[in-house]
Specification:
2 domains; alpha/beta; three-stranded mixed β-sheet; binds copper (II) ion; four-stranded mixed β-sheet; 192 residues; Immunoglobulin-like; elongated
Length: 192
């Protein structure tokens, strides 16, 4: 099946009876997508399966393991180099989009008690609404992350990280450590 397809392609190059229109020329310039599409023609079914896998796995955030399995189960036994390359590309794309998503999520980490000082670092924290702050208690004693009157009051333990999701309306809020506010352990939360 694969060999037949290869022969047909080889003969096709020798025919040379196609007239080249301006539209086709411009198409050729666009990385000749149609030719790439034709390459994948015989593999429509596996491609459809892979596409379905990509869509489904994107939804559950497990794209790379699924694609790996697709490579092992489908592409490798058929020695299908094009499909293999396609799958690898898809994995790279998934990895990139995941990274972009993480960046957009704006992972914000606030250290509590660096050098056993009674302070937050940074002391001014800016997040978009709905984002999560990671509190990293790097000191030897418990602290809190408290936005008084806003329902945010989290006790953190030495050497542990805790997370708090900020669902406050946009604005500027003072936050404190309840245990050490008298020692100046406080900061400012900006929600955008
Ligand atoms: Cu404290």
């Amino acid at each position: 099946m694969a060999a037949t397809q290869t022969n047909r392609d080889t003969h096709g190059h020798g025919r040379g009876q196609r007239t080249v229109t301006a539209a086709e020329k411009s198409q050729a310039r666009e990385v000749s997508l149609r030719r790439i599409g034709r390459l994948f023609g015989p593999y429509r079914w596996p491609l459809a399966v892979v596409t379905a896998i990509i869509v489904a796995s994107s939804l559950v955030g497990l794209a790379s393991p699924f694609l790996l399995r697709a490579i092992i189960d489908t592409a490798l036994p058929e020695k299908n180099v094009q499909l293999l390359a396609w799958l690898v590309l898809a994995m790279v794309a998934v990895a990139c989009s995941k990274q972009a998503g993480a960046k957009e999520g704006g992972a914000v980490t606030v250290q509590e008690g660096p050098g056993n000082a009674f302070s937050f670092s940074p002391s001014t924290v800016t997040v978009t609404k709905g984002r999560t702050i990671t509190l990293d208690n790097v000191s030897n004693v418990p602290h809190t992350f408290t936005v008084t009157g806003q329902g945010i009051d989290l006790e953190t333990q030495p050497g542990k990280t805790s997370t708090v999701t900020i669902n406050l309306p946009p604005g500027t809020y003072p936050f404190i450590c309840r245990f050490h506010v008298s020692l100046g352990m406080k900061g400012t939360l900006v929600v955008r």
